[in-house]
Specification:
Layout (H helix, E strand, L loop, with lengths): L5 H13 L6 H5 L11 H15 L1 E2 L2 H4 L5 H6 L2 E2 L12 E4 L3 H13 L5 E9 L4 H14 L5 E6 L2 E7 L6 E3 L11 H16 L8 E9 L2 E9 L5 H19 L43
Parallel strand pairs: 7-8
Antiparallel strand pairs: 1-2, 3-6, 4-9, 5-6, 8-9
Helix pairs in contact: 1-3, 7-9
Length: 294
């Protein structure tokens, strides 16, 4: 399977909050309850919150603390309700769509998610620190509300929901196997293009994800998959500029800047300076998949 199932993603979160090994937990979760595996009330509450925030899934807290095997409890998770204007969860701000977002969502209704989904990739060489990459992604989304913006339908039409916290999803795909002389990057893009629409259509979450594809020993393709309502080609390139800089700092264990930048609704907000904060612009011409070298 190229993309992790919801259960696999939930088990990854459970391992993270418990402090266990992600490779070992699934075997234990098949027959043991959350508490036996090292979880307590605090960890259960954090797992429930992160499942809804990061995956858009609702996990029953009482079942999580009960005697049923953890895998069975997580398999019963259901999509969390999307609450828009008049019923927004704490920490989410509901706002009117920006003009470019309206156009992108209208295009999706007409032609489907595949028509408004873009892929921009970077080929990474050398050892990869996935924990540092996740920290860099979390810092990037903390700074820029465009990466924390989900879209919801209401009686008055679509709205955008700016979430207080929502680290981008990092999905690890299967390695690409190719023969001598085969373009592994092109093969990875071709495979990812088929699945890109699913990565950006997760209820209650921003329509974007980062996909990591191993190419060969010491080589990975990291792809920013996003809806046109999230970014145009210029702002997507700026996302890369900041992400790679943050990743370098995270690898070196340097502090990451998480201070929120002014959003499009900030009074008197000006344009982004070259090399400065990412400016999430209205969608424009979509780029073809690229893979700039790092």
């Amino acid at each position: 399977m190229l993309t992790p199932t919801p259960l696999e993603e939930l088990l990854d979160l459970a391992a993270d909050v418990i402090g266990g090994d992600r490779r070992v937990l699934p075997a234990g979760a098949a027959g043991s309850p959350f508490i036996t595996l090292g979880g307590g009330l605090g960890q259960a509450v954090r797992l429930q919150a992160r499942a809804e925030r990061q995956l858009g899934l609702a996990v029953d807290l009482a079942q999580l603390l009960g005697p049923a095997p953890l895998a069975d409890v997580l398999a019963r998770a259901r999509p969390a309700p999307v609450r828009a204007a008049g019923g927004v969860e704490r920490g989410a701000a509901v706002r009117a769509l920006l003009p470019g977002q309206s156009a992108a969502l209208a295009a999706e209704r007409e032609a489907g998610a595949g028509a408004v989904t873009r892929i921009l990739s970077a080929e990474l060489s050398g050892p990869l620190d996935t924990d540092a990459l996740r920290r860099a992604l979390a810092a990037l989304s903390a700074r820029h509300e465009g990466l924390r913006t989900a879209f919801a339908a209401t009686a008055r039409g679509p709205v955008r929901r700016v979430l207080a916290v929502c680290p981008p999803s990092l999905v690890t795909l299967e390695a690409v196997a190719g023969g001598p002389g085969e373009d592994l990057v092109a093969a990875a893009h071709a495979r990812l293009a088929v699945r890109a629409g699913r990565l950006v259509t997760r209820p209650g979450l921003p329509p974007l994800a980062f996909a990591l594809t191993p190419l060969a020993t010491g080589r990975h393709l990291l792809s920013f998959v996003h809806h046109d309502a999230v970014a145009d080609s210029r702002s997507a390139a700026l996302v890369w500029q900041e992400l790679l800089a943050d990743y370098d700092r995270a690898v070196r264990r340097r502090p990451l800047d998480r201070a929120p930048r002014p959003g499009p609704d900030t009074p008197g907000r000006g344009g982004a300076a070259p090399g400065g904060p990412v400016r999430m612009l209205p969608p424009g011409a979509a780029p073809h998949p690229e893979h700039p070298q790092r």
